[in-house]
């Protein structure tokens, strides 16, 4: 399986399985150690911060070493079969740790917990607790149950839970970028996708709690928030008396107005729902980053219909044209699935031609992986042989690499506003940060500027995924 990994924090696979650290706090369980590891999308990483917050109130401290932990949690993803395989392999490693420390509580959280429910307890004997994404408030009780010798499961999905009042503990944070969850669940029922089953119905979080969380982050020194949802364009909130209504464009503006120095990003947009109003709001505010992740999945209208994406090739092209018209400088990325049920070579070529048309800045590309219980698994045969899926994937990965490179090359010679996020992974002599369009820029450290500050950087060179440049000092 070849996934093209590009520098987008919301899809950063290099963070997969990262352990999260939390400062010690006193409480009922004071001194007990929690280890939490996250897989999957940004929503899961964000949820782990909610879990850490709930357990820190109980006095848990976090550790980066699962061998010394009292409670080991793995926050899981079900999106493709290999995501689940990774988790099962990791659980085998926890087994050895548990055999040395039988009192250790091992818990499975997130989407796999929701999909497999109590089956997990039968299949993976070492698992003590199984908790779905809407049941994290129940964790203290569930841990108590396990402490008293029982296994514990809570996989109830909710129509209301948004954890709006929980102030997430920022784990392993650079103090500059943060995720802010604006909605949960998904009602779209794309035929290939497990998310509606693992995350439940779509619900939007109170906008005032989103603005408050973002303001608190800004006051604590953060300079970038990424608003998260499976389909941010269908964000919709109304006050009880229906006098106040907030859509995604309104919410974006509310967050952008917190401070011009707070950058706003968001993910994921849905081609069927992204409106011109959102695009004009982006264009109006300099601090809303000019970058849209707009997953196409396929360039062929028949395949899109089988996928139940509810748009066709023409509609998608119309949305791309609107973005280019309203914000010519906007970067666009996508997700593509190759070898979906019954996809012909000709239909695959339409995905290739769509990529040629848009010339995406980045793309995340996957072979179709049949997921039990989804509409596609029930209705259509997974009939494209693996080697054909793989060959189609290899072809588009190579094409995307060319496009990514071309898009970065087009930036060379231009000055970009970059938020310094820290040192480059390769050298302490270089800073790294992203441009407004989400391209990673690496440039020599200048002591006058610190992480968390904006600098103007002239792009001078690039690799296929990174720009390299130098700071152009601001003239007063
Ligand atoms: N809500 C987002 C997608 C979330 S899942 C959206 O609608 O765009 C992230 C990506 O995983 C999807 O865009 C899709 O490209 C891919 N994906 C989801 N289910 C898949 C499956 N069964 N097989 C292969 N890729 C899949
Ligand atoms: Fe899955 Fe479709 Fe919802 Fe995205 S919009 S999470 S692909 S069902
Ligand atoms: Fe995976 Fe669940 Fe996210 S299936 S992609 S962790 S919503």
TrEMBL record:
Its EC number is 2.8.4.3. SUPFAM superfamilies: Radical SAM enzymes. It holds the Pfam family TRAM. [4Fe-4S] cluster 2 binds at residues 186, 190, 193. Residues 409-473 form the TRAM domain. Its cofactor is [4Fe-4S] cluster. It comes from the Bacteria. Keywords: 4Fe-4S, Cytoplasm, Iron, Iron-sulfur, Metal-binding, S-adenosyl-L-methionine, Transferase, tRNA processing. GO terms for cellular component: cytosol. Belongs to the methylthiotransferase family. MiaB subfamily. PANTHER family: CDK5 REGULATORY SUBUNIT-ASSOCIATED PROTEIN 1 (PTHR43020), MITOCHONDRIAL TRNA METHYLTHIOTRANSFERASE CDK5RAP1 (PTHR43020:SF2). This is tRNA-2-methylthio-N(6)-dimethylallyladenosine synthase. It comes from Mucilaginibacter auburnensis.
């Amino acid at each position: 399986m070849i996934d093209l990994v590009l520098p987008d924090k919301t899809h950063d696979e290099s963070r997969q399985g990262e352990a999260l650290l939390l400062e010690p706090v006193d409480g009922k369980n004071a001194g007990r150690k929690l280890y939490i590891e996250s897989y999957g999308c940004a929503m899961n990483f964000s949820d782990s911060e909610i879990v850490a917050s709930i357990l820190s109130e109980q006095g848990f401290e976090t550790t980066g070493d699962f061998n010394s932990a009292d409670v080991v949690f793995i926050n899981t993803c079900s999106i493709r079969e290999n995501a689940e395989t990774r988790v099962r392999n990791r659980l085998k490693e926890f087994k050895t740790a548990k055999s040395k420390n039988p009192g250790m509580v091992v818990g499975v959280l997130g989407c796999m917990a929701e999909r497999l429910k109590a089956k997990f307890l039968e299949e993976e004997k070492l698992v003590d607790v199984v908790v779905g994404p809407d049941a994290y408030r129940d964790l203290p009780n569930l841990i108590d149950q396990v402490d008293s010798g029982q296994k514990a499961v809570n996989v109830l999905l909710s129509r209301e839970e948004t954890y709006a009042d929980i102030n997430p503990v920022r784990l392993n944070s650079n103090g500059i970028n943060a995720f802010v969850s604006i909605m949960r669940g998904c009602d779209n029922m794309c035929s290939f996708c497990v998310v509606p089953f693992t995350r439940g119905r779509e619900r939007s979080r109170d906008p005032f709690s989103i603005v408050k969380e973002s303001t608190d982050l800004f006051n604590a020194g953060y300079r970038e928030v990424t608003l998260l949802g499976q389909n941010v364009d269908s964000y919709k909130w109304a006050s009880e008396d229906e006098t106040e209504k907030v859509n995604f464009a309104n919410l974006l503006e509310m967050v952008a107005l917190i401070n011009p120095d707070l950058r706003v990003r968001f993910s994921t947009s849905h081609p069927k729902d992204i409106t011109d109003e959102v695009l004009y709001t982006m264009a109006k505010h300099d601090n809303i980053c000019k970058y849209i992740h707009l997953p196409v999945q396929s360039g062929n209208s028949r395949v899109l219909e089988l996928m139940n994406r509810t748009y066709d090739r023409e509609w998608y092209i119309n949305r791309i044209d609107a973005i280019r018209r309203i914000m010519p400088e906007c970067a666009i990325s996508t997700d593509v699935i190759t070898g979906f049920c019954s996809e012909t070579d000709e239909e695959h070529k339409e995905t290739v031609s769509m990529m040629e048309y848009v010339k995406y800045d980045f793309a995340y590309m996957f072979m179709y992986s049949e997921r039990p219980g989804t509409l596609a698994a029930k209705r259509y045969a997974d009939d494209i042989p693996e080697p054909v899926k793989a060959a189609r994937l290899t072809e588009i990965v190579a094409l995307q690499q060319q496009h990514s490179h071309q898009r970065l090359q087009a930036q060379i010679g231009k000055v970009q506003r970059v938020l310094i996020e820290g040192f480059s992974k390769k050298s302490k002599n270089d800073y790294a940060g992203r441009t407004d369009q989400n391209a990673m820029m690496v440039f020599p450290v200048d002591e006058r500027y610190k992480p968390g500050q904006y600098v103007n950087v002239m792009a001078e060179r690039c690799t296929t995924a990174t720009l390299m440049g130098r700071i152009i000092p601001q003239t007063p």
